[in-house]
Amino acid sequence: MKQFDPGDSPSIASITDKVRPLAIGMPVTAIHFLGDTAVFVGTEENAALVGATGDISSVAIHGGAILCAASDGERIVTGGDDGKVVALDAKGVVTVLATDAKRRWIDNVALHPDGAVAWSSGKTAFVRSGKGEEKSFDAPTTVGGLAFAPKGLRVAIAHYNGVTLWFPNMAAKPEFLEWAGSHLGVTFSPDNKFLVTMMHEPALHGWRLADNRHMRMSGYPGRVRSMSWSAGGKGLATSGADSVIVWPFASKDGPMGKEPAMLAPLQARVSVVACHPKQDVMGVGYSDGTVLMVRLEDGAEILVRRNGGEAVSALAWGAKGTQLAFATEDGDAGMVEL
């Protein structure tokens, strides 16, 4: 893809003139692609579907704030303060998957490739298998994050002082990975060898799952609120600093004893990162509204959106890697075809 090569020019290459502005009309908390349809999930009540021709349609999915969203490429599942877990497909069809018995907020959702869905409310995590069987697990404290392992039906439940690894279909006692502090988001590496959490303090914490060895990943000036695995899973790109911090995971020890790469520095904090699905390239959004495409190999940059306005709140690539969509906290949005 020639677009990723800034060439010999000393100034940054720009594709801002190729960006199609989108009148989403609402602050956006997440973007996911369902085929060629880009879905912008609002902070309140609605999602906006943008078709391949650029037509925009709004769909009501919750009766209040939308607190979390996840997608498997076939559907987007969201949780809201209305106590509902909702699925949305590319045609705009909304299906209520679950309603909390006490109408508690749905704080986290996660999806498994086989169709299973997980969600949490307060201290309780729920899993519904692809066949419709439902199980629940009470964590020691409020659930801060959920993730399915890439292989097998295993759920990581982040909470205060660590992570619980739960096998909903087995009677085995859940495994507890301890680390002091509040763990607010969790992800498995694509090769299933590592687990990483975003902490309330400005740090990540990781475990090598073969022996539960700790990986301290600190030094951030601010909290990490966004993380994304590179296409081959060899790097974990993160927000939280005025550069993209990319931790190396190519070796069996992961980032232990290694320095992370620091790419695309700006006079603004990185607010969101999204790695390309097939190439070692990432989309990066900043607190000043800038959007860049950055090559992981050498840090080469391409300008997608100039600074100005509110922080970038969401970024996503289409599955083919030929579309990049972005949105800001004040509802400015756009998409570029590569």
Main pleated-sheet profile:
7 strands, antiparallel
Radius of gyration: 19 Å
CATH topology heading of the domain at 14-100: Thrombin, subunit H
Trace the largest sheet across and list its strands.
3-4-5-6-7-8-9
Order of helix and strand elements from N to C terminus: EEEEEEEEEEEEEEEEEEEEEEEEEEEEEE
Structural class: mainly beta
Q: CATH architecture of the domain at 14-100, please?
A: Beta Barrel
Average pLDDT metric: 94
The oligomeric state of the chains shown is single chain
Count the helices. How many?
Answer: 0
**Low-pLDDT regions:** 1-10
Question: Quick one: CATH class of the domain at 14-100?
Answer: Mainly Beta
Domain Anaphase-promoting complex subunit 4-like WD40: 277-334
Keywords: Repeat, WD repeat
InterPro entries: Apc4-like_WD40_dom, Quinoprotein_ADH-like_sf, WD40/YVTN_repeat-like_dom_sf, WD40_rpt, WD_repeat_multifunction
Protein name: WD-40 repeat-containing protein
